[in-house]
């Protein structure tokens, strides 16, 4: 399998697109489903499987799961900032360095799977409560200089959810770890 497909199994996110209310509702459903999809796929994996990188020079599955929890915690805070401040500038973080921290390399994935489960309950509760006006509220990302409406951020995190789930699933399929 070529490296681009291993890195982006569902393709790259298309930034700057406008998302309808129906698309946003679908994206929230994708976000909502992620924790149970990961729990169902990874719940019985042993340590050897969890230490397997999903691609050459990629993160291990353990690092991947901890990354998703880190990323989605940041997203939750960013949504709340955008809803309570006028187009705030969010704080970026060094995701690659976070994946190298000791907890991301050694902690049980159950910690992050449970964190995702409960974080997503709160996140989805918040996202489902938003009005069409709320969905147009924004934040600025200082690294890109772009202003992001909440509806686009929801789409980005739906993509992010499926993107990383597919990393684990396609690894499992390549290694015959799933029926």
Extract low-pLDDT stretches. none
The topology string of helices and strands comes to HHHHHHHEEH
The computed structural class is: mainly alpha
Number of helices: 8
- The CATH architecture can be named as Up-down Bundle
CATH superfamily: dinb family like domain
Radius of gyration (Å): 16 Å
Could you name the CATH topology?
Four Helix Bundle (Hemerythrin (Met), subunit A)
Fraction in helix = 55-70%
Tally of separate domains: 1
Quaternary organisation of the protein chains: single chain
Instruction: Enumerate the strands of the largest sheet in spatial order, edge to edge or round the barrel.
Output: 1-2
Number of strands: 2
The outline comes out as globular
* Residue share in β-strands: under 5%
Main beta-sheet annotation: 2 strands, antiparallel
CA-CA gap between termini: 20 Å
Quote the average pLDDT.
96
Keywords: Hydrolase
Organism: Arundinibacter roseus
InterPro entries: DinB-like, DinB/YfiT-like
GO molecular function, one term: hydrolase activity
């Amino acid at each position: 399998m070529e490296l681009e497909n291993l890195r982006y199994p569902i393709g790259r996110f298309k930034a700057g697109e406008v998302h309808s209310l129906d698309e946003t509702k679908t994206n929230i459903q994708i976000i909502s489903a992620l924790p149970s999809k990961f729990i169902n796929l990874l719940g019985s994996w042993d340590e050897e499987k969890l230490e397997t990188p999903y691609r050459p020079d990629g993160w291990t599955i353990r690092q991947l799961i901890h990354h998703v929890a880190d990323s989605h915690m940041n997203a939750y805070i960013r949504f709340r900032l955008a809803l309570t401040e006028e187009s705030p500038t969010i704080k970026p973080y060094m995701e690659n360095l976070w994946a190298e921290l000791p907890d991301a390399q050694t902690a049980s994935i159950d910690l992050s799977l449970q964190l995702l489960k409960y974080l997503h309950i709160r996140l989805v509760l918040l996202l489902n409560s938003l009005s069409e006006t709320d969905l147009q509220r924004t934040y600025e990302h200082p690294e890109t200089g772009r202003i992001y409406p909440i509806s686009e951020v929801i789409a980005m995190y739906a993509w992010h959810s499926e993107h990383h789930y597919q990393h684990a699933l396609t690894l499992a399929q390549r290694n015959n770890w799933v029926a």
